[in-house]
Structures are given as structure tokens and as C-alpha cells.
Amino acid sequence: MKFTLSSFIGFILSFATLMLGSADTVGVVNFKDSLPEFLKIPFLDFTSLFVVIGGMLCGLFVMYPAGAVFKGISAIRLMFSHYNGKMEILEKEIENILEYKEGFVADKNGFIERMTKGSADKITKYLFELVSTNYSTHEIREIGEVYIDKRKTEEIKRADVLDMMAITSPAFGMFGTVLGLIVMLQNLDDPNAIGPGLSLALLTTLYGTAFANLLFAPLAKKIRFNSVLNVAREHLILEGITMVKDGRSALMIKDQLFSFIGQGSGDEK
């Protein structure tokens, strides 16, 4: 292993965020009073957020490379994105492959050029790039399998980062709770200080638990679920394109691909 500057910078910034939240909690700084009035609303406490998020990110930058951390965080944009049903996706890909067969037969070189330059689907584009070379069908299948496994591994890494975020965020919620309780216990002689200290203590636990169970853990499960579906789709595309390259008939391609997904080509949806 070697020293990684990006991970170090990420850790320092995350630690600074954690320290800012902690310092505000114990009264060393007074960040909350500098906020505009419209941000001073119930259940929104930036000090608690700083403690939970800063602490969580500190752990992530120690455990994972910075790139893996950022990829995991970027997965949050997928929160409300979903695939259609599995069969609908796979049946659509079979229709696409049958169209590839027609285009391949009509104008092999022109069709391959169009697919390598214009296809929006990464694996389809990549496989047609392999078809355009002198690789045999067996070699294309082997290279394609490695490519699919690599993509699956990257997806699992993102899910692992999100799983760790789900584990660490409640822990740092408890960290903030302990800080809040210390503040409260230090001011037992002042009844006016007990309420804010207890409120802060409970809010950090609330944020940590909410982030873990409403965001990070569900996203990790979604990525794993979608990864299984996407691997099945990519294997089907690989099988279909290799059959197109081999010059198999459209009927054979259709029957074999439908058997690949566990149904006959004449079955009703």
C-alpha cells in the first residue's frame, strides 16, 4: 500500500466537519447563531448533521480509496430510479438482438461501424467493437465474460460502501448523543440548558438512524438487486451478439435466447 493524497485530503475535510459539529455541541464555537432565520427550524440541526456526516466520511476515507467513496456517494442519485420488470427488460433485449441480426445480414461492415459509434449501451458497443476485430467467437465470449464480471465487481463495491455508511452513521449519531449528554450533565444547575442539550443528543441519533435505514441500507440493497438483473441482461446480450456473429438464423437466436430466460419464444407474456 502507498500513501494516497486524495484519501488524506478527504479525511482531513471530513474530520474538520466532525470537529466543527463537536465544538459547536460543547459550546466552543457558536455556529448555529450565525445561520439565517429561515434555516432555524425544528428538527433541522446542522451541528448534528456535521457530527454524523463528518464522522461517517472519516471512516470511509480510511477504509476505502477516495474514488470508491465518491462512487458510493454518487449512488444517492439512483434513489428513485428503477428498472422495469425483469422479463420486460430481457424480452426487449431479445427484440434488439433480432434487429441486430437483420442489420448485420443487410450490411455487415456498415452495421458494425454504426453500432461501435452510435450505440448508447456500453456493453453492446463494446461487444461490436470486438466483433469488428479478428477475434473468434470463443475469444469474444471469454473477453465479454471478463468485462461483465468487472462491471459487476464495481457495482458490488458501491453497495459495500453504502453498507458501511449504513453501519457507521448510527455509530456517529451515538457519538453526538454522548457529546450532548455531557453538555447537559455539565449544566444540571441551569434548567434552561438541559432542554437544548438533550435535544441535541437525541437529534444526532435520529439523523444517524434515519440516514442508515431510509437511505444508505435501501440503496445498497437496490444496487445489488439491479446488479443481478443487469448481469443477466449483459449475459443475454453477449450470447445474442455471438450468435449474430456466427450467422445463426433469426429463429434459432430467438428460441435460444428465450430458453436463456426460462421460457419459450411462443409463450404469452
Overall number of domains: 2
Low-confidence stretches: none
Q: Helical element count?
A: 9
Mean pLDDT: 86
How is this structure best described in words?
With 269 residues, the protein is mainly alpha-helical. The chain folds into 2 domains: 5-81 and 156-215, no CATH class; 86-148 and 232-260, no CATH class. Helices cover 77% and strands 0% of the residues. The chain is built from 9 helices and no strands. It has helices at residues 5-26, 46-63, 66-74, 86-106, 108-118, 122-131, 137-186, 191-245, 250-260. The longest helix has 55 residues, at 191-245. The protein is elongated. The protein starts with a helix and ends in a 9-residue tail after the last helix. The model has no long low-confidence stretch (mean pLDDT 86).
Topology:
Layout: H1 5-26, H2 46-63, H3 66-74, H4 86-106, H5 108-118, H6 122-131, H7 137-186, H8 191-245, H9 250-260
Give a short synopsis of this structure.
With 269 residues, the protein is mainly α. It contains nine helices and no strands. The longest helix is centred in the C-terminal third of the chain and has 55 residues, at 191-245.
Task: Offer a few descriptive terms.
2 domains; mainly alpha; elongated; 269 residues
